[in-house]
Amino acid sequence: MTGHDDGVHVPTDEELAGMSRDELVALGTKLDGVELIEYDDPWPVKGTRAEKRAERVVAFWFILGALAALAFIVVFIAWPWQYQKPGHQFWYGMYTPLLGITLGLTVLGLGFGALTYVRKFVPHELAVQERHDGQSPEVDRQTILAELADAGNRSTIARRSLIKRSAIAAGSLMGLGLLVFPLGGLIKNPWGRSQAPQDTLAHTGWYQDPANRERVFLRKDTGDPHEVALVSPVDMDAGAMQTVFPFRESERNDPEALQAALTRIDNPVMLLRFRPADAARIIKRVGQEDYNYGDYYAYTKICSHLGCPTSLYEQQTNRILCPCHQSQFNALEYCKPIFGPAARALAQLPIAVDEQTGYFYAVHDFKEPIGPGYWERGA
C-alpha cells in the first residue's frame, strides 16, 4: 500500500480489484476528506404499508406523465387542427390548449415523480468535505464509482420495479413526444400521388385546372367570408395597395370554399397600382414582361425568407417591408430584395382584365413556388 496526501493508506491496483463495494465506499470517503454527519435510511423497516404507499405515489406521478405524453402525441397527430369557420370552431379551438395541457402534465408528472422519489427513498445525507485541487488519481475514480453505485443501491431503486417501469415509460413517451415537433411535418408527403396539383408546394390557390380553364378572379376580403367583392381597375387610386384572394365562379354558393380561399396560407396577393411617374421607372423581370396590366402589378404577400406576410407598403419609396425580420423589397424592380435576410424576389402573379365583366383575373398561377426555399424547388 502507498500513502495519500491526507495520510490515508492507498491500496495497490491488485488490492483495489479485491475490495468490496462497502470497502471502496469507506475508503473513498476517507480519501475525499468526507465526514458523514448523518446518513439515515428513510425506511429502516422494509415492506411497511407506508413504504408501499410512498412507492405508489411516485409511480402515480410517473404514470400520469406517461399518459399525458401519450395523449400529447395523439392530439398532435389526430386532433382536428385545420381552420374552421366561425360557429364550428370548438374542436379546432381546443387543439392548441390541449397540446399545452398534455405537455404541461407530462413535465409536471416527471418532475413531481422525481422530487417525490428523492424525498421518500434517497437516504438523507449530511456530509462535510474538504476541497482538494488537481486531477483525481485512479483510486479516487474507482471509489467515486463505488459511491455512486452505493447511493443507487441505498435508494432501493433496484428493487422497485413499479417506479422503474413507470419512470421509463414516462421518460420514453415524453422523448417520443418531443420528437413529434420536428418530425410531425414529415408525416404527409407534399408530393404524394393523393395530392392534387394545387395542394403541392409548387402551386397555390391561384392554380387553374387545365381541364376546365375556369378563370380565377381577384377578390377583396370585406370581413364577411360569404360576400364576393371582385376588383376592377377603377376601384384603386394611384399609389394604392390592397390584398386580394382567388375566387372562382363555381365557388360562389359554396360557403366552405369561399372561407377556405381567405384562409389558405399561400393565397394572399398584394395588388399595387403605381403612380404614372413610378410606373415609368419599373424594371420588369426577364420572362415576365407581360405579367402586369398597365400600372397594376400583383405580387405574393408571402415573404421569400420565412413566409411572413409582407404587409407593409411605403408609397413614397415604393418599398415593401416584411415586419418579421425586416426584409425590404423594391417594388419598382420586380420586388427584388434590397435589405434583410430575404434572398429571392417576391413571386409575381400575372393579371389581366376580363373583357365581359371588367374585373381582374389571374392569367395563371405563379411561375415559381412562393415563400421560403426548400431543397426540391428549382427556382
Short summary of the structure?
35% of the residues lie in helices and 16% in strands. It is an alpha+beta fold and 379 residues long. A hairpin with a 6-residue loop joins strand 14 and strand 15.
Summarize the structure in words.
With 379 residues, the chain is α+β, with helices and mostly antiparallel strands. The chain has 2 domains: 2-184, no CATH class; 197-362, Rieske Iron-sulfur Protein, CATH 2.102.10.10. The protein is 35% helix and 16% strand. Strands 5, 6, 7, 8, 9, 14 and 15 form a 7-stranded antiparallel beta sheet that branches. A 4-stranded antiparallel beta sheet has the order 10-11-12-13, with no helix packed on it. Strands 1-2 form a two-stranded antiparallel sheet. Helix 3 runs antiparallel to helix 5 (95-121). The chain starts with a strand and ends in a 17-residue tail after the last strand.
List keywords for this structure.
single chain; 9 helices; 379 residues; 2 domains; Rieske Iron-sulfur Protein; alpha+beta; 15 strands; elongated
